[in-house]
Every structure is written in C-alpha cells, then in structure tokens.
Amino acid sequence: MKPSYLESLERIKEEHSEMNKNLNQQRAELEKVNTEKENMHRSYMTYAEVAGTMRNDIKRAEEANKRLQEFILQTLSPLLSPEHQASCLAAMESFKSASSPRENGNGAAALPPGFPPGAAGMLGMLPFGMNPAMSQLFNQFTSQNGDGTGAGGSEAKKAKLEDPDDNELEIDVTNDDNPSTTNGGAGHKNGRDSTNSVASSGASTPSIASNSAKARQQQPQGGLQSLEQMSFLAGLNPNMLRQGGYNLFSDPHAHAKIAAAMSQMSGRPAYSFKIVDGVPTPTLFPADAQKGPGIPTGLKKKMELNHGEVVCAATIARDNTRVYTGGKGCVKIWDVCESDITGNTVANRPSIATLDCLKENYIRSCKLFQDGKTLLIGGEASTVALWDLTTQMKTLDLETDSQACYALALSPDEKLLFACLADGNILIYDIHNREKVHTLPGHQDGASCLDLSKDGTKLWSGGLDNSVRCWDLGQRKELAKHDFSSQVFSLGCCPNDEWVAVGMENNNVEVLSTTMKEKYQLTQHESCVLSLKFAHSGKFFISTGKDNALNAWRTPYGASLFQLKENTSVLSCDISFDDSLIVTGSGEKKATLYAIDY
Q1: Do the beta carbons of residue 341 and residue 595 sit within 8 Å?
Q2: Which PANTHER family does the entry link to (predicted)?
C-alpha cells in the first residue's frame, strides 16, 4: 500500500531534520579543527622563537668560553703557584675534551663521568656553566679556601675574575610583560594586566641586581651568570651548577625548567613576528624597545564620560579642552579642565552640549577641524553632517549615495573630505565648494577605515574585502594592494610615512612597510581589533578590541609597552595632539579619558 502524502511529508521532515543535525555536527567539528590548527600554529611559532633564543644564547656562551679561556691562560694562570698552574692547565684540557668528545673503542663518544650514553651530541652545545669541567675549574680557584678568597687568598686576585669587557654578554632578565616584577608581585604593571607572560601566574623574576656581591665577585659577567639566573628561575640550585655537583641529564625535567625560565626571561609566548617573503620569525626587540624619551609606560584614568549609549566614535580637541563622543543619534561635548588632568580623583560630570544628528543612527566617525570650530560626523546614514560648533548648528549635509559611512579623513589643508562608504567606494568631497570631486572604486565590499599620509599625497584604506589599498591622490589611482585572509576593521598611518598599522577581524595587528617587502604581525589581542591610532610623535601606537583591551605598541616592531583592560569592548580611541591624553569609547555606554605616563 502506497504511503499517504502526509506520511511522505513527515518522513521528508525527519530526514531534513537529521541532515541539519549532521550538518551542525560537521560545522562544530570543523570549527574545532580550525581552532586546533590555530593553536598548533601559535605553538609552532613559540617553539621557533625558543629555538632561536637558544641558538643566540649558545653563540654568546661560546664567545664567553673563548674569552674566559684566554683570560685564564693569559691573566690568571701566571698569578698562581706552579702546582696550581698545573692543576689549572689540566682542568683546561679536561674542559676542551668535554667540549669536543672523542670516540671510544666502541665508536661512541667518550663522555665525562656522570653523563649518560647519548648525551655526547649535546656537549658541544652546552652553555658555559653546564660543563662540569669548567664548573670544577672555577670552583677550584674561586671557592677553594671555603671563604671565597680563591687559591691565592687575595681579594685583588679574586676581583680579576670579573672581565670588564664582557658587559655586552650580560642578559637582562627583567620581564616587562611579567606583572610580578613590580609592586610586590601585584597583577598590574603601569596599569596593565599581563596576558602574555608565562610568569603571570605569580612567580617572581629576579634581576641581575639581586645577585649577591660575593657571587658577582666569584664569576664573570658572561654565560655563567646568565645560566645561573635561568637556573634560579627554573627552580634549580645555581650553586650546584657552579660547583659541578648537578647533573643536567639526571633530571628528566631540567630541559623543561630551563625552557620555562627562558620564557620568563623573554616574555613568552611570542606576540610579535617579523614576516619577510611570507616567512614569519619571532621579533628580537632592541634593548631600548620599551624605554626612552617619548615612550609611554602606562595610563592613569582621569575622567569617565557617561554618554548613555554605546560610544562608537571619540576625538580630542587640539588644545585638550574638549572631548567629543559619538553614540546613537547624537554627539556629546565634554569640558576638560586642567584640574581634571592633574588631580588624583576620577572626574565625572555631565556633558556641556549635545548635537542631535543622523536621526537615531549610530555615529561611526567624528573629525574635528584644527581650529576646533567645525565638526564632521559620519555614520550609519546616507549623509555626512557638517556642524558649526560655535553656534552648535548643522551647516551642511553631504550626500554619499550609500547607506553608511564608516570612517572620515581630512586633507592637511582641510579642503577635501574623504569618506569610506558601505558600498566599497571612497568619496572625495570638496568642502569649500560643497561638491563631489571624485570617487575611488576598488573595494569589493564595504570600505571600513582610512587614513592619510602626513603630506596628504597618499590615502590608505582598508575594507571588508580583506584588502588594504594605497591611493595616489594626485593621479587618483590605486598604487598598491595588500591582500589578507581576514577583514580589515581599523587602520592608521605613522606620521613618518614609513609604516601603516592595520587592525584585523582575526585578532591580529599587521604593521606594513611602505617602502620594503616586510611587515610585522602582532598577536596580543584575543578578539577583533576595532580601532587603531598612532601617536603624533610616531614612536608608538595604540589599538583597541572586542577583547576589552587597549594595547600600546612600539613602532614598528610592536614591543608591548602596556596593556589596559576595560569592562566591555573598546570600540574607538583617539590620542591628543601633544600625545598626553588618550580617550576610548566602549560598549559600556561611556568614554574614558586617560593621561599618558612617560
């Protein structure tokens, strides 16, 4: 008997439901696989950086070994008695033998006592201080009398063990990403929650200054001191290493401990990668990456501006006396007094004026003229509004022929307006003559962000089509295009016109060179990067994201200067003209004004 129509329909519904269920399961599995893939990639980059750091440490250790051998033979040995000179030379020969293992009768490398089979391949790579023979040598001539006076019993001879030429081999283990290095192990440094340091769980990081005077006198400032600092971090006894009583290979967790110590010393996991020809390598920061004139160390909250709606745009007046915040359907103006910035309390007062605009649509960009008398407002509407701030009246509506304007920029002479539109075009508008000048097509999806070079000859734009484009404004044509695997949400040009920073939907910040085929990738954000702004000095820039974070980066390589967490997503930001203030707009329906510490 043939099934009825209703039965067939019911069976089809059941099959459709089962197929949807299977489809959802497949999507969940695919998402899980993609997450695992990303985690594996991050782990690989971390391991690559650890390997690079170890190679550099080994090279430095080899240089230290060479200098110390020359120092012992040329300076220390002539000061010893003949008996001790013979012991010294014998220990030196033993050290050389351990560094270059010989084969025994079975074809295997001959090892010093206490080393297991298979360890020969690592002997030549061990930093100074891990080698038992050299440890024995220094133990003999720096601790032989038990009181630290050395073989000759002379403080003068002991002091000669410090080679003044080894200063460049000294490793600074102060961890700028480790919150426990300051304030007695508190979880903040310069107003920042540490999210990247392996040591953020509460382990403190000792500094070089914490070594005792006796230890400094008993050892050179090269690889041995660095190893002892690492061993201290790793929970190993540095005295055992120095005296040759610790067998590295007998501890199954030794290498893990040393790797963890190196992570603490270097600020693991890696968050900055230099990419050349598509190949990423962890960035090695210079010694002054996080310090120096014009380099900020943190923020202090000065004002809370309760807008009442989600703040999608914010800007600071050139003279620091006003802040403008854009939310839903209005821009609010806030007065900033000198006492607000210099005081010790967080100011909280109502706005002094409200500009009703864009008919209950969200405002996405506010651009203030240099004289502080005119404000451009764009957002989720088909017009860009021009407001006279002296009369608080709207003087012009610029039609864009698009459903939304996501970002605005002004030419240096403030005659031309550039607007990113939802249809992917970039509109050029002559404000003085009140007419459209040109449209730059190119983005296949919405143009989300833009910025001008300092001289105003080039325009950089980012879009939801996963691309960043550079435009020649003289010829009004596209000069270059950079493709990514993620949508572009924010963008900023460095005032020196050498770098462009891009905030991505995939949580990364990409720093592009305008002159070379290299870039930096910064991975400290945990969610999409919603806004980005360079300091007017060009020495640093900030980025904010859906992860509630504000990150400050050193230009261009992205050394983390500080990180600050707000309670909700940070949607917008601006830096004052003198680089003294930062304002952020958040999903908490308020803006926050911070003073920058240097």
Answers
A1: yes
A2: PROTEIN GROUCHO, TRANSDUCIN-LIKE ENHANCER PROTEIN
